UniProtKB/TrEMBL annotation:
This is Vacuolar protein 8. Its main location: membrane. One of its GO terms (biological process) is nucleus-vacuole junction assembly. Pfam families: ARM_PUB, zf-MYND. Keywords: Lipoprotein, Membrane, Metal-binding, Repeat, Signal, Vacuole, Zinc, Zinc-finger. Residues 520-563 form the MYND-type domain. Residues 504-513 have a biased composition (Low complexity). It comes from Chlorella ohadii. ARM repeats lie at residues 94-136. Residues 1-22 form the signal peptide. InterPro entries: ARM-like, ARM-type_fold, ARM_PUB, Armadillo, Vac8, Znf_MYND.
Amino acid sequence: MMAAGVPKALVALLVHPNSLTAAKQWACRTLGQLTDGSESSRCQAIVAAGAVPALLQGLVSDSPADVQAAAALALAELTGSPEPEISRSACAAGGVQLLVPLLSSPHEEARRSAVAVLRNLAADSEECRAALAASALPALVQLLRDADPATKANAAHTLTRVSDDQVGHSAAIVQHGALPHLMHLLGRGDAEQQQAAAGAVHALSMDGQAAAAAAAGAVGRLVHLLRRADYDGLMADAALALDSLALEHPECCADAAAAIPSLVSLLASCDQKACSNAAAALAHIVSEDAEAASAAAQHGAVAALVRAAQRSTEASTLQELMWALSQIATEPGAGQQLEAAGGVLLLVQLLRHNDAGVQHSTAWAVRFFAHTIPAQLVAAGAICALLGALHSGTSGPDPEPGLQQAAAEALGQLAAGSLRRSRFIVASGGIAALRPLLDEEEAQRAAAWALRQLAVVEPSALEGVPDASDSESESSWEDERSSGSDEWHSDAGSEQDGPEGGTEEAQQRQQQEQQQQRHCTVCGATRAAGVKLRLCAGCRTPGLLFCSTECQRQAWPSHRAECREAQAAARRKN
Protein backbone atom coordinates (compact mmCIF):
# COMPACT_ATOMS: atom_id res chain seq x y z
CA MET A 1 0.00 0.00 0.00
CA MET A 2 1.37 3.41 -0.99
CA ALA A 3 1.57 6.11 1.68
CA ALA A 4 -0.52 9.16 0.82
CA GLY A 5 2.40 11.59 0.89
CA VAL A 6 4.83 9.60 -1.26
CA PRO A 7 3.81 10.98 -4.69
CA LYS A 8 3.90 14.56 -3.40
CA ALA A 9 7.35 14.05 -1.93
CA LEU A 10 8.67 12.58 -5.19
CA VAL A 11 7.17 15.41 -7.23
CA ALA A 12 8.69 17.97 -4.87
CA LEU A 13 12.10 16.34 -5.24
CA LEU A 14 11.73 16.32 -9.01
CA VAL A 15 10.87 20.01 -9.36
CA HIS A 16 13.18 21.41 -6.68
CA PRO A 17 15.84 23.56 -8.38
CA ASN A 18 18.59 22.32 -6.09
CA SER A 19 17.89 18.60 -6.46
CA LEU A 20 20.79 16.59 -7.76
CA THR A 21 20.54 14.89 -11.15
CA ALA A 22 20.71 11.48 -9.51
CA ALA A 23 17.88 12.43 -7.14
CA LYS A 24 15.67 13.64 -10.00
CA GLN A 25 16.42 10.48 -11.95
CA TRP A 26 15.52 8.36 -8.91
CA ALA A 27 12.28 10.32 -8.37
CA CYS A 28 11.24 9.76 -11.99
CA ARG A 29 11.97 6.06 -11.86
CA THR A 30 10.15 5.66 -8.57
CA LEU A 31 7.05 7.43 -9.91
CA GLY A 32 7.15 5.10 -12.90
CA GLN A 33 7.46 2.05 -10.68
CA LEU A 34 4.55 3.21 -8.51
CA THR A 35 2.43 3.63 -11.65
CA ASP A 36 3.38 0.39 -13.39
CA GLY A 37 0.45 -2.03 -13.17
CA SER A 38 -1.26 0.10 -10.55
CA GLU A 39 -4.95 0.33 -9.97
CA SER A 40 -6.78 3.42 -11.19
CA SER A 41 -6.97 5.06 -7.74
CA ARG A 42 -3.17 5.04 -7.34
CA CYS A 43 -2.67 6.57 -10.79
CA GLN A 44 -5.16 9.29 -9.93
CA ALA A 45 -3.31 10.01 -6.68
CA ILE A 46 -0.02 10.34 -8.55
CA VAL A 47 -1.61 12.70 -11.07
CA ALA A 48 -3.25 14.71 -8.29
CA ALA A 49 0.18 15.21 -6.76
CA GLY A 50 1.24 17.10 -9.90
CA ALA A 51 3.31 14.33 -11.49
CA VAL A 52 2.39 15.08 -15.12
CA PRO A 53 3.71 18.67 -15.31
CA ALA A 54 6.69 17.72 -13.15
CA LEU A 55 7.66 14.88 -15.46
CA LEU A 56 7.14 17.07 -18.52
CA GLN A 57 9.50 19.59 -16.95
CA GLY A 58 12.06 16.81 -16.82
CA LEU A 59 11.86 16.56 -20.62
CA VAL A 60 13.02 20.10 -21.36
CA SER A 61 16.09 20.40 -23.51
CA ASP A 62 18.41 21.59 -20.73
CA SER A 63 17.63 18.60 -18.52
CA PRO A 64 20.34 15.94 -18.29
CA ALA A 65 19.85 13.06 -20.73
CA ASP A 66 19.42 10.56 -17.90
CA VAL A 67 16.65 12.66 -16.37
CA GLN A 68 14.93 13.04 -19.75
CA ALA A 69 14.99 9.28 -20.29
CA ALA A 70 13.72 8.57 -16.77
CA ALA A 71 10.95 11.18 -17.06
CA ALA A 72 9.84 9.76 -20.41
CA LEU A 73 9.78 6.25 -18.96
CA ALA A 74 7.62 7.38 -16.03
CA LEU A 75 5.27 9.19 -18.41
CA ALA A 76 5.00 6.03 -20.51
CA GLU A 77 3.83 4.13 -17.45
CA LEU A 78 1.48 6.90 -16.36
CA THR A 79 -0.13 7.52 -19.77
CA GLY A 80 -0.50 3.77 -20.26
CA SER A 81 -2.99 3.60 -17.40
CA PRO A 82 -6.71 3.19 -18.17
CA GLU A 83 -7.34 6.87 -17.46
CA PRO A 84 -7.60 8.80 -20.76
CA GLU A 85 -7.67 12.11 -18.90
CA ILE A 86 -4.00 11.61 -18.05
CA SER A 87 -2.99 11.48 -21.70
CA ARG A 88 -5.18 14.44 -22.56
CA SER A 89 -3.68 16.53 -19.78
CA ALA A 90 -0.14 15.60 -20.87
CA CYS A 91 -0.93 16.57 -24.43
CA ALA A 92 -2.56 19.84 -23.37
CA ALA A 93 0.52 20.69 -21.33
CA GLY A 94 2.75 20.49 -24.41
CA GLY A 95 3.84 16.88 -24.08
CA VAL A 96 4.11 16.24 -27.82
CA GLN A 97 6.37 19.24 -28.42
CA LEU A 98 8.65 18.13 -25.58
CA LEU A 99 8.74 14.46 -26.61
CA VAL A 100 9.30 14.77 -30.38
CA PRO A 101 12.95 15.95 -30.02
CA LEU A 102 13.67 12.86 -27.93
CA LEU A 103 12.72 10.64 -30.89
CA SER A 104 16.06 11.63 -32.41
CA SER A 105 18.03 11.37 -29.17
CA PRO A 106 21.34 9.47 -29.33
CA HIS A 107 20.26 7.64 -26.18
CA GLU A 108 18.35 4.44 -26.90
CA GLU A 109 16.39 4.53 -23.65
CA ALA A 110 15.19 8.08 -24.34
CA ARG A 111 13.98 7.15 -27.83
CA ARG A 112 12.29 3.99 -26.54
CA SER A 113 10.46 5.79 -23.73
CA ALA A 114 9.51 8.85 -25.80
CA VAL A 115 7.86 6.83 -28.57
CA ALA A 116 6.06 4.72 -25.96
CA VAL A 117 4.56 7.89 -24.46
CA LEU A 118 3.55 9.20 -27.88
CA ARG A 119 1.88 5.89 -28.68
CA ASN A 120 -0.24 6.29 -25.55
CA LEU A 121 -1.01 9.96 -26.18
CA ALA A 122 -2.09 9.27 -29.75
CA ALA A 123 -4.62 6.73 -28.55
CA ASP A 124 -6.58 9.21 -26.47
CA SER A 125 -6.18 12.64 -28.04
CA GLU A 126 -7.14 13.90 -31.47
CA GLU A 127 -5.08 17.02 -30.83
CA CYS A 128 -2.05 14.82 -30.16
CA ARG A 129 -2.52 12.93 -33.41
CA ALA A 130 -2.72 16.18 -35.33
CA ALA A 131 0.42 17.47 -33.61
CA LEU A 132 2.28 14.25 -34.40
CA ALA A 133 1.22 14.39 -38.04
CA ALA A 134 2.51 17.94 -38.23
CA SER A 135 5.87 17.47 -36.56
CA ALA A 136 6.84 13.86 -35.87
CA LEU A 137 6.30 11.77 -39.02
CA PRO A 138 9.91 11.82 -40.32
CA ALA A 139 11.24 10.84 -36.90
CA LEU A 140 8.63 8.11 -36.40
CA VAL A 141 9.37 6.64 -39.84
CA GLN A 142 13.07 6.70 -39.04
CA LEU A 143 12.41 4.79 -35.80
CA LEU A 144 10.98 1.91 -37.84
CA ARG A 145 14.66 1.14 -38.52
CA ASP A 146 15.81 1.59 -34.91
CA ALA A 147 18.08 -1.03 -33.38
CA ASP A 148 15.76 -1.49 -30.41
CA PRO A 149 12.90 -3.96 -31.11
CA ALA A 150 10.42 -2.26 -28.76
CA THR A 151 11.12 1.14 -30.33
CA LYS A 152 10.36 -0.18 -33.82
CA ALA A 153 7.11 -1.77 -32.68
CA ASN A 154 5.97 1.35 -30.83
CA ALA A 155 6.80 3.56 -33.81
CA ALA A 156 4.57 1.37 -35.99
CA HIS A 157 1.80 1.47 -33.38
CA THR A 158 2.04 5.25 -33.20
CA LEU A 159 1.84 5.61 -36.98
CA THR A 160 -1.21 3.34 -36.91
CA ARG A 161 -2.98 5.62 -34.49
CA VAL A 162 -2.04 8.74 -36.40
CA SER A 163 -3.35 7.28 -39.67
CA ASP A 164 -6.60 6.18 -38.02
CA ASP A 165 -7.77 9.79 -38.03
CA GLN A 166 -8.65 9.59 -41.74
CA VAL A 167 -7.95 13.26 -42.39
CA GLY A 168 -5.07 12.87 -44.82
CA HIS A 169 -2.40 11.75 -42.37
CA SER A 170 -1.96 8.40 -44.13
CA ALA A 171 -0.89 9.99 -47.39
CA ALA A 172 1.77 11.95 -45.51
CA ILE A 173 2.97 8.79 -43.75
CA VAL A 174 3.39 7.04 -47.11
CA GLN A 175 5.10 10.08 -48.62
CA HIS A 176 7.64 10.00 -45.80
CA GLY A 177 8.63 6.47 -46.85
CA ALA A 178 7.00 4.33 -44.17
CA LEU A 179 5.86 1.46 -46.39
CA PRO A 180 9.26 -0.11 -47.22
CA HIS A 181 10.15 -0.18 -43.52
CA LEU A 182 6.76 -1.65 -42.60
CA MET A 183 7.24 -4.34 -45.24
CA HIS A 184 10.60 -5.18 -43.70
CA LEU A 185 8.99 -5.52 -40.27
CA LEU A 186 6.24 -7.73 -41.71
CA GLY A 187 8.78 -10.01 -43.31
CA ARG A 188 11.67 -10.06 -40.86
CA GLY A 189 10.55 -8.50 -37.59
CA ASP A 190 9.77 -10.36 -34.41
CA ALA A 191 6.16 -11.21 -33.56
CA GLU A 192 5.48 -7.88 -31.83
CA GLN A 193 6.91 -5.90 -34.73
CA GLN A 194 4.96 -7.96 -37.27
CA GLN A 195 1.75 -7.39 -35.37
CA ALA A 196 2.41 -3.65 -35.17
CA ALA A 197 3.26 -3.48 -38.88
CA ALA A 198 0.10 -5.40 -39.80
CA GLY A 199 -1.92 -2.90 -37.78
CA ALA A 200 -0.27 -0.04 -39.64
CA VAL A 201 -1.01 -1.63 -43.03
CA HIS A 202 -4.65 -2.01 -42.00
CA ALA A 203 -4.94 1.62 -40.92
CA LEU A 204 -3.19 2.95 -44.02
CA SER A 205 -5.31 0.79 -46.31
CA MET A 206 -8.54 2.00 -44.73
CA ASP A 207 -7.39 5.59 -45.22
CA GLY A 208 -6.86 5.48 -48.96
CA GLN A 209 -3.42 3.87 -49.19
CA ALA A 210 -4.41 0.28 -50.00
CA ALA A 211 -3.08 0.42 -53.56
CA ALA A 212 0.24 1.78 -52.34
CA ALA A 213 0.49 -0.91 -49.66
CA ALA A 214 -0.31 -3.64 -52.19
CA ALA A 215 2.28 -2.26 -54.60
CA ALA A 216 4.85 -2.33 -51.79
CA GLY A 217 4.29 -6.08 -51.37
CA ALA A 218 1.95 -6.18 -48.39
CA VAL A 219 -0.29 -8.96 -49.75
CA GLY A 220 2.47 -11.51 -50.23
CA ARG A 221 4.00 -10.79 -46.83
CA LEU A 222 0.64 -11.07 -45.07
CA VAL A 223 -0.11 -14.35 -46.84
CA HIS A 224 3.28 -15.70 -45.75
CA LEU A 225 2.71 -14.42 -42.21
CA LEU A 226 -0.66 -16.16 -41.96
CA ARG A 227 0.94 -19.43 -43.02
CA ARG A 228 3.62 -19.46 -40.34
CA ALA A 229 2.35 -17.33 -37.44
CA ASP A 230 1.91 -19.32 -34.26
CA TYR A 231 -0.38 -17.24 -32.09
CA ASP A 232 -3.86 -15.87 -32.60
CA GLY A 233 -3.19 -12.21 -31.87
CA LEU A 234 -0.70 -11.88 -34.72
CA MET A 235 -2.88 -13.87 -37.11
CA ALA A 236 -5.91 -11.77 -36.20
CA ASP A 237 -4.12 -8.55 -37.12
CA ALA A 238 -2.66 -10.08 -40.29
CA ALA A 239 -6.14 -11.22 -41.36
CA LEU A 240 -7.53 -7.76 -40.63
CA ALA A 241 -4.84 -6.12 -42.76
CA LEU A 242 -5.52 -8.55 -45.61
CA ASP A 243 -9.25 -7.86 -45.28
CA SER A 244 -8.64 -4.11 -45.57
CA LEU A 245 -6.53 -4.57 -48.68
CA ALA A 246 -9.16 -6.80 -50.32
CA LEU A 247 -11.93 -4.36 -49.42
CA GLU A 248 -10.21 -1.16 -50.51
CA HIS A 249 -8.16 -2.54 -53.41
CA PRO A 250 -10.08 -5.45 -55.01
CA GLU A 251 -7.41 -5.86 -57.67
CA CYS A 252 -5.26 -7.66 -55.09
CA CYS A 253 -7.86 -10.36 -54.32
CA ALA A 254 -6.41 -12.85 -56.79
CA ASP A 255 -3.08 -12.72 -54.96
CA ALA A 256 -4.77 -12.65 -51.55
CA ALA A 257 -6.56 -15.90 -52.43
CA ALA A 258 -3.34 -17.73 -51.58
CA ALA A 259 -4.24 -17.10 -47.92
CA ILE A 260 -7.55 -19.00 -48.13
CA PRO A 261 -6.27 -22.26 -46.54
CA SER A 262 -4.79 -20.26 -43.65
CA LEU A 263 -7.96 -18.21 -43.22
CA VAL A 264 -10.09 -21.36 -43.17
CA SER A 265 -7.81 -22.83 -40.51
CA LEU A 266 -8.01 -19.61 -38.49
CA LEU A 267 -11.80 -19.97 -38.33
CA ALA A 268 -11.19 -22.77 -35.83
CA SER A 269 -9.59 -20.31 -33.39
CA CYS A 270 -11.24 -19.81 -30.03
CA ASP A 271 -10.20 -16.16 -30.24
CA GLN A 272 -13.30 -14.27 -31.41
CA LYS A 273 -11.26 -11.47 -32.97
CA ALA A 274 -9.14 -13.88 -35.00
CA CYS A 275 -12.19 -15.82 -36.12
CA SER A 276 -14.11 -12.68 -37.07
CA ASN A 277 -11.21 -11.15 -39.00
CA ALA A 278 -10.61 -14.40 -40.87
CA ALA A 279 -14.26 -14.54 -41.91
CA ALA A 280 -14.24 -10.90 -43.03
CA ALA A 281 -11.09 -11.38 -45.10
CA LEU A 282 -12.47 -14.56 -46.62
CA ALA A 283 -15.73 -12.83 -47.56
CA HIS A 284 -14.07 -9.90 -49.30
CA ILE A 285 -11.56 -12.05 -51.16
CA VAL A 286 -14.11 -14.51 -52.56
CA SER A 287 -16.63 -11.79 -53.40
CA GLU A 288 -14.16 -10.29 -55.87
CA ASP A 289 -12.67 -13.47 -57.34
CA ALA A 290 -14.71 -16.44 -58.62
CA GLU A 291 -11.73 -18.80 -58.49
CA ALA A 292 -11.15 -17.80 -54.88
CA ALA A 293 -14.76 -18.66 -54.03
CA SER A 294 -14.31 -22.08 -55.57
CA ALA A 295 -11.05 -22.59 -53.69
CA ALA A 296 -12.70 -21.63 -50.41
CA ALA A 297 -15.44 -24.21 -50.91
CA GLN A 298 -12.88 -26.87 -51.81
CA HIS A 299 -10.85 -26.12 -48.67
CA GLY A 300 -13.85 -26.75 -46.44
CA ALA A 301 -14.82 -23.15 -45.73
CA VAL A 302 -18.54 -23.94 -45.46
CA ALA A 303 -18.10 -26.48 -42.67
CA ALA A 304 -15.48 -24.30 -40.94
CA LEU A 305 -17.80 -21.28 -40.96
CA VAL A 306 -20.68 -23.36 -39.59
CA ARG A 307 -18.55 -24.77 -36.77
CA ALA A 308 -17.26 -21.30 -35.91
CA ALA A 309 -20.80 -19.93 -35.79
CA GLN A 310 -21.92 -22.79 -33.57
CA ARG A 311 -19.17 -21.84 -31.09
CA SER A 312 -19.50 -18.08 -31.29
CA THR A 313 -21.33 -15.98 -28.73
CA GLU A 314 -20.56 -12.52 -30.11
CA ALA A 315 -23.00 -10.90 -32.53
CA SER A 316 -20.26 -9.11 -34.48
CA THR A 317 -18.45 -12.40 -35.11
CA LEU A 318 -21.65 -14.18 -36.14
CA GLN A 319 -22.38 -11.38 -38.56
CA GLU A 320 -19.01 -11.77 -40.28
CA LEU A 321 -19.33 -15.57 -40.38
CA MET A 322 -22.77 -15.46 -42.00
CA TRP A 323 -21.66 -12.84 -44.50
CA ALA A 324 -18.72 -15.02 -45.53
CA LEU A 325 -21.04 -18.02 -45.81
CA SER A 326 -23.34 -16.08 -48.13
CA GLN A 327 -20.43 -15.34 -50.47
CA ILE A 328 -19.70 -19.03 -51.17
CA ALA A 329 -23.26 -20.36 -50.91
CA THR A 330 -23.71 -20.79 -54.65
CA GLU A 331 -20.51 -22.74 -55.22
CA PRO A 332 -21.02 -26.34 -56.42
CA GLY A 333 -21.58 -28.61 -53.45
CA ALA A 334 -21.83 -25.77 -50.93
CA GLY A 335 -25.43 -26.63 -50.09
CA GLN A 336 -24.59 -30.25 -49.42
CA GLN A 337 -21.62 -29.20 -47.28
CA LEU A 338 -23.88 -26.91 -45.27
CA GLU A 339 -26.38 -29.70 -44.72
CA ALA A 340 -23.68 -32.19 -43.71
CA ALA A 341 -22.23 -29.73 -41.18
CA GLY A 342 -25.60 -29.12 -39.53
CA GLY A 343 -25.75 -25.60 -40.90
CA VAL A 344 -29.32 -25.59 -42.20
CA LEU A 345 -30.88 -25.52 -38.74
CA LEU A 346 -28.20 -23.06 -37.62
CA LEU A 347 -29.24 -20.59 -40.33
CA VAL A 348 -32.86 -20.79 -39.25
CA GLN A 349 -31.87 -20.26 -35.62
CA LEU A 350 -29.77 -17.21 -36.49
CA LEU A 351 -32.66 -15.71 -38.46
CA ARG A 352 -34.31 -15.46 -35.04
CA HIS A 353 -31.25 -13.91 -33.36
CA ASN A 354 -31.86 -10.82 -31.24
CA ASP A 355 -29.28 -8.83 -33.21
CA ALA A 356 -30.58 -7.33 -36.48
CA GLY A 357 -27.11 -7.39 -38.03
CA VAL A 358 -26.86 -11.15 -37.51
CA GLN A 359 -30.33 -11.60 -38.99
CA HIS A 360 -29.35 -9.46 -41.96
CA SER A 361 -26.23 -11.40 -42.94
CA THR A 362 -27.98 -14.72 -42.24
CA ALA A 363 -30.88 -13.76 -44.51
CA TRP A 364 -28.40 -13.25 -47.34
CA ALA A 365 -26.91 -16.66 -46.69
CA VAL A 366 -30.38 -18.23 -46.80
CA ARG A 367 -31.17 -16.33 -49.98
CA PHE A 368 -28.22 -17.84 -51.83
CA PHE A 369 -28.44 -21.33 -50.36
CA ALA A 370 -32.08 -21.33 -51.50
CA HIS A 371 -30.74 -21.90 -55.02
CA THR A 372 -29.61 -25.43 -54.20
CA ILE A 373 -31.24 -26.65 -50.98
CA PRO A 374 -34.61 -24.88 -50.80
CA ALA A 375 -36.52 -27.93 -49.57
CA GLN A 376 -34.12 -28.46 -46.67
CA LEU A 377 -34.37 -24.80 -45.65
CA VAL A 378 -38.16 -24.86 -45.74
CA ALA A 379 -38.28 -28.11 -43.77
CA ALA A 380 -36.10 -26.50 -41.07
CA GLY A 381 -38.51 -23.57 -40.72
CA ALA A 382 -36.84 -20.93 -42.88
CA ILE A 383 -40.07 -19.41 -44.20
CA CYS A 384 -41.53 -18.58 -40.80
CA ALA A 385 -38.13 -17.37 -39.61
CA LEU A 386 -37.76 -15.07 -42.64
CA LEU A 387 -41.23 -13.64 -42.08
CA GLY A 388 -40.28 -12.98 -38.47
CA ALA A 389 -37.06 -11.31 -39.62
CA LEU A 390 -39.08 -9.12 -42.00
CA HIS A 391 -41.09 -7.88 -39.05
CA SER A 392 -38.04 -7.28 -36.85
CA GLY A 393 -36.41 -5.30 -39.67
CA THR A 394 -39.10 -2.65 -39.31
CA SER A 395 -39.56 -2.66 -35.56
CA GLY A 396 -37.52 -2.63 -32.39
CA PRO A 397 -35.10 -0.04 -31.03
CA ASP A 398 -32.61 -0.43 -33.89
CA PRO A 399 -34.34 -1.30 -37.21
CA GLU A 400 -32.15 -2.77 -39.94
CA PRO A 401 -33.44 -1.62 -43.38
CA GLY A 402 -31.11 -3.97 -45.24
CA LEU A 403 -32.68 -6.90 -43.43
CA GLN A 404 -35.97 -6.25 -45.21
CA GLN A 405 -34.33 -6.49 -48.62
CA ALA A 406 -32.39 -9.64 -47.74
CA ALA A 407 -35.40 -11.41 -46.22
CA ALA A 408 -37.63 -10.44 -49.15
CA GLU A 409 -35.12 -11.78 -51.65
CA ALA A 410 -34.75 -15.00 -49.66
CA LEU A 411 -38.53 -15.52 -49.67
CA GLY A 412 -38.65 -14.81 -53.39
CA GLN A 413 -35.90 -17.31 -54.09
CA LEU A 414 -37.61 -19.99 -52.01
CA ALA A 415 -40.83 -19.37 -53.93
CA ALA A 416 -39.24 -19.32 -57.39
CA GLY A 417 -40.04 -22.43 -59.40
CA SER A 418 -42.11 -24.17 -56.73
CA LEU A 419 -45.88 -24.04 -56.41
CA ARG A 420 -45.69 -25.94 -53.14
CA ARG A 421 -43.32 -23.50 -51.46
CA SER A 422 -45.16 -20.52 -52.91
CA ARG A 423 -48.41 -21.76 -51.42
CA PHE A 424 -46.70 -22.25 -48.07
CA ILE A 425 -45.39 -18.67 -48.09
CA VAL A 426 -48.80 -17.30 -49.05
CA ALA A 427 -50.54 -19.38 -46.38
CA SER A 428 -48.01 -18.14 -43.81
CA GLY A 429 -48.87 -14.50 -44.49
CA GLY A 430 -46.07 -13.75 -46.93
CA ILE A 431 -48.05 -11.38 -49.13
CA ALA A 432 -49.20 -9.30 -46.17
CA ALA A 433 -45.62 -9.15 -44.89
CA LEU A 434 -44.10 -8.19 -48.24
CA ARG A 435 -46.65 -5.66 -49.46
CA PRO A 436 -45.68 -2.84 -47.01
CA LEU A 437 -42.12 -3.04 -48.34
CA LEU A 438 -43.30 -1.65 -51.68
CA ASP A 439 -43.20 1.74 -49.95
CA GLU A 440 -39.66 1.22 -48.62
CA GLU A 441 -37.01 2.61 -50.96
CA GLU A 442 -34.31 0.08 -50.11
CA ALA A 443 -36.52 -3.00 -50.16
CA GLN A 444 -39.22 -2.21 -52.72
CA ARG A 445 -37.57 -3.89 -55.70
CA ALA A 446 -36.86 -7.05 -53.73
CA ALA A 447 -40.42 -7.11 -52.41
CA ALA A 448 -41.86 -6.62 -55.91
CA TRP A 449 -39.76 -9.48 -57.23
CA ALA A 450 -40.83 -11.78 -54.38
CA LEU A 451 -44.50 -10.89 -54.87
CA ARG A 452 -44.24 -11.79 -58.55
CA GLN A 453 -43.05 -15.24 -57.55
CA LEU A 454 -46.04 -15.64 -55.22
CA ALA A 455 -48.48 -14.46 -57.89
CA VAL A 456 -48.10 -17.87 -59.50
CA VAL A 457 -50.43 -19.24 -56.83
CA GLU A 458 -52.13 -16.03 -55.65
CA PRO A 459 -52.85 -13.49 -58.42
CA SER A 460 -53.79 -10.81 -55.86
CA ALA A 461 -50.12 -10.62 -54.92
CA LEU A 462 -49.62 -8.42 -57.98
CA GLU A 463 -51.92 -5.70 -56.69
CA GLY A 464 -49.87 -2.54 -56.35
CA VAL A 465 -46.75 -4.14 -57.85
CA PRO A 466 -45.34 -2.08 -60.74
CA ASP A 467 -44.99 -3.89 -64.03
CA ALA A 468 -41.44 -5.07 -64.61
CA SER A 469 -41.37 -3.28 -67.96
CA ASP A 470 -41.97 0.03 -66.16
CA SER A 471 -39.13 -0.28 -63.69
CA GLU A 472 -35.56 -1.38 -63.49
CA SER A 473 -35.25 -5.09 -64.15
CA GLU A 474 -35.16 -7.31 -61.11
CA SER A 475 -32.79 -9.71 -62.84
CA SER A 476 -30.02 -8.34 -60.65
CA TRP A 477 -31.63 -10.12 -57.73
CA GLU A 478 -30.63 -13.44 -59.29
CA ASP A 479 -27.25 -14.67 -58.19
CA GLU A 480 -24.70 -13.88 -60.88
CA ARG A 481 -22.51 -16.82 -59.93
CA SER A 482 -25.22 -19.50 -59.83
CA SER A 483 -24.75 -21.89 -62.69
CA GLY A 484 -27.52 -22.97 -64.98
CA SER A 485 -28.24 -26.55 -65.96
CA ASP A 486 -28.49 -28.18 -69.35
CA GLU A 487 -31.31 -30.27 -67.95
CA TRP A 488 -33.70 -27.46 -68.83
CA HIS A 489 -35.23 -28.27 -72.19
CA SER A 490 -35.41 -25.93 -75.15
CA ASP A 491 -38.04 -23.27 -75.51
CA ALA A 492 -40.33 -25.58 -77.48
CA GLY A 493 -43.97 -25.07 -76.54
CA SER A 494 -45.68 -21.86 -75.55
CA GLU A 495 -47.58 -20.79 -72.49
CA GLN A 496 -50.80 -21.96 -74.10
CA ASP A 497 -49.62 -25.56 -74.25
CA GLY A 498 -51.14 -27.50 -71.36
CA PRO A 499 -50.16 -30.98 -70.20
CA GLU A 500 -51.25 -33.82 -72.43
CA GLY A 501 -54.27 -35.78 -71.24
CA GLY A 502 -56.42 -34.79 -68.23
CA THR A 503 -60.05 -33.90 -68.03
CA GLU A 504 -61.63 -31.02 -69.88
CA GLU A 505 -62.41 -29.35 -66.55
CA ALA A 506 -58.78 -29.57 -65.47
CA GLN A 507 -57.60 -28.12 -68.76
CA GLN A 508 -60.04 -25.22 -68.44
CA ARG A 509 -58.80 -24.55 -64.91
CA GLN A 510 -55.22 -24.57 -66.13
CA GLN A 511 -56.06 -22.16 -68.93
CA GLN A 512 -57.72 -19.81 -66.44
CA GLU A 513 -54.62 -19.90 -64.25
CA GLN A 514 -52.42 -19.15 -67.23
CA GLN A 515 -54.56 -16.24 -68.34
CA GLN A 516 -54.24 -14.74 -64.87
CA GLN A 517 -50.44 -15.19 -64.73
CA ARG A 518 -48.82 -13.54 -67.71
CA HIS A 519 -45.38 -12.75 -66.29
CA CYS A 520 -41.99 -14.44 -66.11
CA THR A 521 -41.58 -16.34 -62.85
CA VAL A 522 -37.97 -15.17 -62.50
CA CYS A 523 -37.68 -11.57 -63.72
CA GLY A 524 -41.35 -10.55 -63.79
CA ALA A 525 -41.35 -9.52 -67.46
CA THR A 526 -44.87 -9.48 -68.94
CA ARG A 527 -46.38 -9.93 -72.35
CA ALA A 528 -47.03 -6.20 -72.32
CA ALA A 529 -43.27 -5.74 -72.48
CA GLY A 530 -43.23 -7.61 -75.79
CA VAL A 531 -41.78 -10.89 -74.53
CA LYS A 532 -43.05 -14.37 -75.29
CA LEU A 533 -43.68 -16.44 -72.18
CA ARG A 534 -43.18 -20.19 -72.17
CA LEU A 535 -43.83 -23.07 -69.82
CA CYS A 536 -41.13 -25.30 -68.38
CA ALA A 537 -40.69 -27.80 -71.21
CA GLY A 538 -39.90 -30.56 -68.71
CA CYS A 539 -42.90 -30.61 -66.37
CA ARG A 540 -45.08 -28.00 -68.10
CA THR A 541 -46.43 -26.93 -64.72
CA PRO A 542 -49.25 -24.40 -65.22
CA GLY A 543 -48.33 -20.91 -64.08
CA LEU A 544 -44.56 -21.41 -64.24
CA LEU A 545 -43.67 -19.11 -67.13
CA PHE A 546 -40.30 -17.98 -68.42
CA CYS A 547 -39.32 -15.32 -70.89
CA SER A 548 -35.95 -16.83 -71.81
CA THR A 549 -33.69 -19.82 -71.44
CA GLU A 550 -31.56 -17.73 -69.07
CA CYS A 551 -34.49 -17.28 -66.70
CA GLN A 552 -35.19 -21.02 -66.91
CA ARG A 553 -31.60 -21.76 -65.97
CA GLN A 554 -31.66 -19.34 -63.06
CA ALA A 555 -34.77 -20.99 -61.66
CA TRP A 556 -33.56 -24.54 -62.26
CA PRO A 557 -31.59 -25.11 -59.00
CA SER A 558 -34.70 -24.54 -56.89
CA HIS A 559 -37.16 -26.11 -59.36
CA ARG A 560 -35.15 -29.23 -60.22
CA ALA A 561 -36.63 -31.61 -57.64
CA GLU A 562 -40.22 -30.58 -58.26
CA CYS A 563 -39.77 -30.77 -62.04
CA ARG A 564 -38.38 -34.30 -61.91
CA GLU A 565 -41.12 -35.38 -59.54
CA ALA A 566 -43.77 -34.04 -61.92
CA GLN A 567 -42.17 -35.78 -64.90
CA ALA A 568 -41.99 -39.07 -62.99
CA ALA A 569 -45.65 -38.76 -62.04
CA ALA A 570 -46.57 -38.13 -65.65
CA ARG A 571 -44.64 -41.23 -66.78
CA ARG A 572 -46.34 -43.38 -64.15
CA LYS A 573 -49.71 -42.09 -65.26
CA ASN A 574 -48.98 -42.93 -68.88
